[in-house]
Amino acid sequence: MTRYAALISYDGSAFHGFQRQRGLPTVQEALEDALSLLNKGMVRVTGAGRTDRGVHALGQVVSFDMFWPHGPDALRKALEANLPSSIGVFEVVPVDEGFDARKSALWRKYAYFIWKGDCRLPHLDEHLWRNGKPWDMQKARAFLSMIKGHHDFSAFCRKADLPDNAWRTIIDAKLENIVHMIKVTIIGRSFLTNMVRIIIGTMDEVAAGRRSLPEVELLLKSGSREEAGPTVPANALFLWEVKYDPSPWTKGGYPLCWDWI
């Protein structure tokens, strides 16, 4: 029995999230079904992040144990061949038995894409949030600066899933604006349910002038979900990267083409 780590991507529009749910298609179920077939016995998969329904991934990481005598590259090819076309596998590597895709992660990076143009992009429209409202970019960046650090993010969590301890650490948050496209990236050690999408929804209200920065400061101290902004659509959110030290990837991991996006 060998423990493996796999670097995968998926189009989340085909799934009801990452985590297995009875009677619903999920990424975890698709992975476990394919690996169990190859293993000729049940394989359980641990994911680095439990993405919600409709959320995508370019850099999801999973770990699992199985018997496989043919080498990791052959396993990668066999796994991808038995998965739906909405899931891709970049690399599969053997790792130490103590490696856990979730617990061993140092941080997770999410990216959210916003389209500000008047026209429609038919090739990318399903993976963008179309938002034509005028934004004050200075206020948007000031908002992202405010959420950095260790805060109580109770106001930025789906109410039904609020844990006893909602304190989380945002390591970095930034906004890149290229013509009509805005990419927001947020790096944190862990996240609450819907946290990134509520952050983006609150940033939208600040940048559009419907909410002040002092209000955000209060939200980070004692806010409730009702006081924060809306939960923006899932289709524009990507689990972008998961960081480990040392990195398990032997081929460099993340494709260089990601630097273009």
Which features characterize this protein?
261 residues, alpha+beta, Alpha-Beta Plaits, tRNA processing, TruA/RsuA/RluB/E/F_N
Task: Explain what this protein looks like in three dimensions.
- This protein is of the alpha+beta class and 261 residues long.
- It is built from 5 helices and 10 strands, in the order E-H-E-E-H-E-E-E-H-E-E-E-H-H-E.
- Strands 1, 2, 3, 4, 5, 6, 7, 8, 9 and 10 form a 10-stranded mixed sheet that branches.
- Helix 3 (137-147) packs antiparallel against helix 4 and helix 3 (137-147) runs parallel beside helix 5.
- The longest helix has 13 residues, at 27-39.
- The chain is globular, with a radius of gyration of 19 Å.
- The mean pLDDT is 94.
- InterPro entries: PsdUridine_synth_cat_dom_sf, PsdUridine_synth_TruA, PsdUridine_synth_TruA_a/b_dom, PsdUridine_synth_TruA_C, TruA/RsuA/RluB/E/F_N.
- GO terms for molecular function: RNA binding; tRNA pseudouridine(38-40) synthase activity.
- The active site is at 52 (nucleophile).
- Keywords: Isomerase, tRNA processing.
Q: Quick recap of the structure?
A:
By secondary structure, the protein is α+β, with helices and mostly antiparallel strands. It has five helices and ten strands.
What is CATH's topology name of the largest domain? Answer: Alpha-Beta Plaits
Order of helices and strands: EHEEHEEEHEEEHHE
Total number of helices: 5
How many domains is the backbone divided into?
2
EC number: 5.4.99.12
Pfam families: PseudoU_synth_1
Binding site for substrate: 110
Family: Belongs to the tRNA pseudouridine synthase TruA family.
